[in-house]
Amino acid sequence: MSVAVETTVTRAPLPVPIHFSHAEQSFSLKKRRVPFSSSSTSNSSYSSPAQLSRSLPPLPPSKGCIPLSRMFPQHPSPWTPLSCSLSKSPRPNSVYDPSKQESYFSQCFTNLGLLGRGSFGEVYKVQSNEDGRQYAVKRSAHRFRGSSERNRSLREARNHEQLCPHPHILKFVAAWEECGRLFIQTELCSTSLLLHAENQPPGPDESSAWAYLCDLLSALQHLHSHGFVHLDLKPANVLITDSGRLKLGDFGLLFEVNQKSIEPVEGKGKGKEDAQEGDPRYMAPELLRGEYGPAADVFSLGVSILELACNIEVPNGGEGWQQLRQGCLPSEFTRGLSTELQTVLGMMLAPEPSERPTVSELLALPSVRKHRWKRRIYLMFTETMLTLTSLCQLVVYFGCRLLSSLHLSFPRHQTKPVPCTPPRDSWDKDLTLPLSAMHADSGSPEEDAVFLLGPTDPELSPTFSHRVKSRLSVESTSTPLPASPQPNHRSPVHTPTHSKLGDWSSYNLAQTPSSIHSNGSYHTLTPSASPIHAGRHTDNMSSTQSQRNSSTKSSQRRGCNWVRTEEDLPRSSFEPKNLLSLFEETTIEGQP
Ligand SMILES: Nc1ncnc2c1ncn2[C@@H]1O[C@H](COP(=O)(O)OP(=O)(O)OP(=O)(O)O)[C@@H](O)[C@H]1O
C-alpha cells in the first residue's frame, strides 16, 4: 500500500518553473544555428535567440535627451582592480600608465579577436603586453544599470577568484572594472565542450562520455570538498583545452555550502527564488524546492553526460523534462550505451537528492576508477607530447634564426636591403583608443572599436579562421558563434564509437552530410517516440566554404584600421606555422 502511495507521489508532475511557460514544451529537432552574420558584430545590433530569452531588456530609446557623456566633460573612467592579482602594489611588469588616455585593456592587451558571446558578455582572445602570453578576456555586454546588476556581475569574478587552482577548473587570472563594465581575464582554452561536441560526427560516443565524466567529477570533487556547489553545470560552461582536458568555468551561481544551512557565496539577494536561475535543461528537481546542495551538481552532470554520450537534445520543458526528473531515462537512446554507463547515469539522475551518490562515491565506483586511470594516462601522454612538440619547434626556430644570421654575416648578402618593420606606434594607433572614446555611450562605434572587427568580416579571431560552424544555439545561453577548430589531436575523446547504435541507425543515416541540402539546411528527421531528440549536426559544406574564404577574409581584415590581425602583431612568442616562411626567407636572403 505504502509502495503504491510512494509511486503516486514520485510520479506526480513537478511544478514547472515560471519561466518554463515559454519553454519548449514539445520535442523538436535541434535548432539550426543562425549563421553569424557580419552585421552582427555590433554589440547593439546583435542578439541571438538565447540572448533574447535570457538577457535584460534593451535600454529605452533616447527621446531627444543629450547623452550624459556629451553633457559632462569626458573624464577617464576610473580603472578599478577587483582581483587580488591586480590590487598588489606595485605590480611587477605592469605596462599600465594611468596618466595615459588609453584604457587599461588597450594598454595591457592586444585584442586578437572575438571567441564567443554569452548572455553575460563577450569573450576575446588577447595577448598580454606584459608577459606575451595569450588569455581569454570576458567583457560584460553593457554597462551596469544600477548597483544590483553590478553586484550580480561582480559575483562571478569574486566567486571564481576564491576557488583554489585545480587542473580541471578554468584558471582565473584577474578581474577589473572600467567604464562601467566588468572584465574577467582567464586562461585561454580551445573552445567550449558544447561547441566541441557539436562538431563531432553524429551518433553515440561512449568513450568520450567516460572521459568527460572523469574530468568533471574531478572538478566537482574539488569544488565540493572546498564547500562550494556550482549549480550551473552544463556543456556550455565547460571549456576544453588543446590537449582535450576539460575545465569547468562560469561560476556566476556558485554557492557556499555551510554546515547548517546553505548560503550563497555573496550571501545577499539570493534565496529560494533564485533556484530557477540555472539552465532548466540541466536543473536538478530539488532546486525548485529551494534545496541547494552538491547533489544538484551530480544531477546536472548526469544530464550533461547523457546528452553527450547519446548525442541528443535534452528537453527544457514538457513531458521529457518531467520524465527525466522522475528517473526515466530515454531507453531508445541509452540502450546503445554499455550497462556500466547506464547504471552510473541512472544513479546520478535519481529523483531524490538523498538517493544520488556523492561525487566521492561515484569516483570510487570500479567502472569510474578504470576509466579515470585511462584518462589520466591519456592526458599525461597528450600533454607531454604537446610540450615536447613545442620544445622541438622552439629548437628548430632558434636554429633557423642562427643559420639566418650566419648567412647574413657574409658581405655579399648584405647588399640586399632588409625589409623595414613598421614602427610599433603605427600598429598601436590602429587598435588603441583614448579612454574617453571607450567611455562614450553604449553602442557608439568608438567604444567598441577595440573589441570589434571589420563589418565585412564575420571571422573575428584568428581562431575563427578555422571555425567552421556558423550556428547559433537556440537553447544555449552562450556562444551563438562559429564553432572552434577541431583540435589536431584525435583521442579517445574525439573518436566516437559507432558500434552501438541501437535505434539510432536511422537517425545517423538521416544526419550524414548527404542529408544536408546544398543551401545548408537539414532534412527533417523522423520524429522519435522519445521526447528527447537526436542532436548534433555537422555542417560540412559551410565549413569547407568558410575555410576557403578564410584567406580572403584575412587579407580583408588587414584593411580595417581598427583591428590587428595576428599576422600584423609583433610576435613575442614563437608560432610554429611560420617555420616554412622562415626557411623561405632564409633562402631568399641567401640568394645574391
Ligand atoms: N577561457 C576561454 N577560452 C576560450 N573560449 C572561451 C573562454 N571563455 C569563453 N569562451 C568562449 O566564449 C563563449 C561565451 O563564454 P561564456 O559562456 O563564458 O559567456 P557567458 O556570457 O558567461 O555565457 P552564459 O552566461 O550564457 O553561460 C563560450 O561558449 C566559449 O566558446
From TrEMBL:
EC number(s) stated in the UniProt entry for this protein: 2.7.11.1
Keyword Mitochondrion tagged: no
Biological-process GO terms, alphabetical: meiotic cell cycle; negative regulation of G2/MI transition of meiotic cell cycle
Keyword Transcription regulation: no
Pfam family, one: Pkinase
Region described as Disordered: spans on this chain: 38-59, 437-456, 462-592
Localisation: Golgi apparatus membrane
Catalytic activity, as annotated: L-threonyl-[protein] + ATP = O-phospho-L-threonyl-[protein] + ADP + H(+); L-seryl-[protein] + ATP = O-phospho-L-seryl-[protein] + ADP + H(+)
SMART domains on file: S_TKc
Keyword entries, A-Z: ATP-binding, Cell cycle, Golgi apparatus, Kinase, Magnesium, Membrane, Metal-binding, Nucleotide-binding, Serine/threonine-protein kinase, Transferase
Binding site for ATP: K138
Entry-linked InterPro entries: CC_SR_Kinase, Kinase-like_dom_sf, Prot_kinase_dom, Protein_kinase_ATP_BS, Ser/Thr_kinase_AS
Biased composition (Polar residues): 473-498, 505-529, 540-558
GO molecular function: ATP binding; metal ion binding; protein serine/threonine kinase activity
Membrane topology: Peripheral membrane protein
Biased composition (Low complexity): 38-56
CC annotations in GO: Golgi membrane; nucleus
Taxonomic superkingdom: Eukaryota
Name of the protein: non-specific serine/threonine protein kinase
Family recorded in the similarity comment: Belongs to the protein kinase superfamily. Ser/Thr protein kinase family. GCN2 subfamily.
